């Protein structure tokens, strides 16, 4: 189904282009179905007898159209020139002057020496053959066969000494034919009426300028215009002849130039590829023929040894095919070049279509050169054909894929997405069809769905990059301003930018800026708790363990400064005093950043609610929690011993009830004045103390000389107090 749709789409697109080109070529007078008036255009005049006579005029491009066509032709001409230059050099070195190349490169000596060695080996084989035949004659066994074999050996022994020369004769014949074919492909100088062919020399090599031949011949302005009329302003009769005054040549418009230019560029590019492949074929032919020359004695070995008859036959076959590859390849190029000469003969009403079709024919003949070489067994021809076929397939797939996903695919994708928004089920037949069409590649490399998804991802990355740029700009501008208000505004903008960044953006920013830089310090100081957690959980390829440890230490320093409320405090005693006084205001996130060591150091200064949250948190191990409990109790006891009242300062009833039992049951009764009735009720409700300890606490409160808190006495005198502490 999809293949049929792709074929239909490709055919339709091509037909539309050709139809559009045909419409553009139809003159307005013809479209109206009327003959041109005398004041309109006509490409004919009347002779003395009143008969109309054609005035052949050639097409011309307008100014802008000419620029467009020349630009496109230049692109294709560049490929043709590059490929043609390689072919020119290859022909000059490996075909036209093959003996000179072999001699200048020192290959001729190698050929002669290897050939002599192979010849001597075979001559030695012939000697043993003659000895064997002699024994048969002496013994009188199969004298007839022995005499026939002896004659064959003698003839083969004679011929084998001329095998190299025979091979060279065949190769030279093929090179001469190829040279003549290359001569036919030379550029004919337009300035030389004698038709003398141009020929250049590069480094002593005669270059045939094959690419110039094709580039020069492919020229739409050689087309004779019979499909457009020439404008005439008046008809005057002079000496029995009607003359045409002020005739104007018809100009090809921009659309004509675009279509012809693309066609020309494609043709020259393909021809350039064929040229480059041909250059490689001529080189492989050269090397193949050298090996055939070296082992040319094989050509006569089959005469003596029947088992080698197939080898000798294969050798002869390879010699002739490799020799004729050059002429056959160049002959097909000559046919392609001769086809281009027919451009000047195009006179149909469908000029544009005729030009396109002629270029297609030229491409076919040029491509046939590689096919002929491949059919003759040229080394590398099969690879070149596969490469070119893949290239053509890619172009076809690109055209059909682009057209399909931007027409049928786009409509189907939009319909499918709108149906999804309306809540239509994916099992709906129309949604399934539209989804399949949107996901079809139409012979290309990507479907409409894939292109849209890729574009959305690209847009997201672009927006993300813009956001990162804005955040970096805000960070760089922090603290900048001439007035206090401007400085404050820049700092606020920086803080909002950092806190407003996503977790992924924070990780990317941390990886972008070097540790210790202003930007890095600003990000670490102002990031939120969730952003910090995300950075600590980032993948190793985003932030490694070393970077995370460094960030955690720097973050802890900033949190400590915030708790102390004095960024300039460096004295250890001042920092400790600030931490002790303000840590009770720290958030859970700040405490987590401080780490185990700092929490244990100031555990006694924590509020009971903070301490309870730590005990319930999963961020700390049981060993850490045990350490916190021990440190908190030690620090509270130390503070209580120094100043009992400071331990109870600003504590609520539940906080008092949670104090260590050692403090609540102080034998000296120093805690009694601070224990409230609410604390006693909380102790009883939560079983902070057992019955024995509660009786002991009651004894301390009611002991003579101890000052009891008023609410404690009221609670103990209440029925509930008497029940729980009585």
UniProtKB/TrEMBL annotation:
Keywords: Membrane, Signal, Transmembrane, Transmembrane helix. The chain crosses the membrane at residues 78-100, 121-139, 151-171, 257-280, 286-307, 319-337, 352-373. Coiled coil: none annotated. Residues 1-31 form the signal peptide. It comes from the Bacteria. This is TrbL/VirB6 plasmid conjugal transfer protein. It comes from Candidatus Kaiserbacteria bacterium RIFCSPHIGHO2_01_FULL_46_22.
């Amino acid at each position: 189904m999809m293949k049929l749709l792709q074929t239909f789409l490709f055919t339709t697109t091509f037909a539309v282009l050709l139809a559009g080109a045909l419409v553009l070529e139809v003159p307005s007078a013809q479209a109206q179905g009327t003959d041109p008036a005398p004041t309109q255009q006509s490409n004919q005049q009347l002779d003395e007898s009143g008969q109309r006579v054609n005035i052949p005029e050639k097409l011309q491009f307008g100014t802008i159209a000419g620029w467009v066509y020349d630009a496109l032709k230049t692109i294709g001409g560049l490929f043709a020139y590059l490929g043609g230059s390689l072919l020119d050099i290859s022909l000059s070195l490996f075909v036209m002057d093959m003996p000179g190349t072999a001699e200048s490169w020192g290959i001729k000596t190698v050929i002669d020496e290897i050939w002599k060695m192979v010849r001597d080996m075979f001559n030695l084989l012939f000697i043993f053959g003659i000895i064997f035949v002699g024994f048969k004659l002496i013994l009188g066994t199969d004298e007839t066969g022995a005499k026939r074999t002896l004659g064959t050996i003698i003839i083969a022994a004679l011929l084998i000494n001329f095998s190299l020369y025979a091979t060279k004769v065949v190769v030279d014949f093929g090179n001469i034919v190829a040279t003549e074919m290359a001569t036919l492909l030379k550029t004919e100088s337009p300035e030389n009426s004698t038709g003398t062919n141009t020929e250049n020399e590069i480094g002593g090599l005669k270059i045939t300028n094959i690419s110039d031949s094709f580039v020069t011949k492919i020229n739409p302005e050689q087309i004779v215009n019979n499909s457009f009329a020439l404008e005439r302003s008046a008809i005057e009769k002079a000496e029995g002849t009607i003359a045409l005054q002020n005739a104007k040549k018809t100009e090809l418009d921009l659309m004509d130039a675009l279509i012809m230019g693309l066609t020309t560029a494609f043709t020259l590019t393909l021809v350039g590829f064929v040229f480059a492949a041909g250059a490689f074929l001529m080189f492989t032919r050269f090397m193949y023929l050298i090996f055939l020359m070296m082992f040319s004695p094989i050509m006569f070995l089959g005469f003596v040894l029947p088992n080698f008859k197939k080898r000798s036959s294969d050798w002869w076959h390879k010699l002739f095919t490799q020799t004729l590859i050059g002429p056959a390849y160049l002959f097909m190029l000559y046919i392609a070049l001769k086809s281009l000469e027919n451009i000047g003969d195009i006179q149909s009403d469908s000029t544009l279509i005729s030009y396109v079709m002629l270029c297609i024919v030229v491409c076919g003949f040029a491509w046939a050169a590689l096919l002929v070489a491949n059919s003759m067994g040229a080394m590398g021809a099969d690879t070149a054909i596969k490469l070119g076929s893949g290239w053509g397939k890619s172009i076809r797939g690109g055209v059909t894929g682009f057209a399909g996903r931007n027409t049928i695919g786009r409509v189907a994708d939009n319909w499918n997405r709108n149906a999804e928004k309306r809540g239509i089920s994916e099992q709906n037949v129309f949604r399934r069809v539209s989804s399949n069409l949107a996901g079809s590649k139409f012979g290309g490399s990507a479907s409409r769905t894939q292109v849209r998804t890729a574009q959305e991802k690209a847009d997201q990355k672009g927006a993300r990059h813009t956001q990162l740029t804005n955040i970096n700009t805000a960070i760089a501008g922090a603290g900048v301003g001439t007035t206090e208000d401007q400085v404050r505004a820049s700092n606020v903008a920086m803080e909002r930018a950092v806190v407003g960044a996503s977790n992924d953006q924070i990780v990317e920013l941390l990886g972008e800026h070097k540790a210790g830089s202003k930007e890095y310090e600003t990000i670490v100081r102002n990031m939120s708790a969730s952003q910090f957690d995300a950075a600590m959980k980032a993948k190793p390829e985003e932030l490694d363990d070393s970077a995370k440890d460094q960030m955690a230490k720097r973050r802890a320093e900033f949190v400590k400064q915030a708790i102390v409320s004095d960024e300039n405090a460096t004295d250890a005693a001042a920092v400790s005093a600030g931490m002790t006084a303000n840590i009770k205001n720290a958030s859970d996130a700040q405490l987590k950043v401080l780490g185990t060591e700092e929490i244990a150091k100031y555990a006694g200064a924590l509020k009971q609610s903070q301490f309870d949250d730590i005990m319930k948190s999963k961020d700390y191990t049981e060993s850490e929690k045990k350490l916190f409990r021990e440190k908190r109790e030690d620090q509270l006891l130390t503070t209580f011993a120094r100043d009992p009242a400071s331990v109870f300062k600003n504590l609520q009833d539940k906080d008092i009830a949670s104090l260590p039992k050692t403090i609540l049951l102080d034998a000296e009764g120093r805690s009694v004045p601070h224990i409230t009735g609410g604390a006693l009720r909380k102790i009883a409700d939560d079983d902070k103390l057992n019955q024995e300890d509660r009786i002991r606490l009651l004894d301390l409160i009611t002991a003579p000389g101890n000052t009891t808190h008023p609410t404690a006495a009221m609670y103990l005198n209440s029925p509930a107090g008497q029940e729980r502490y009585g």
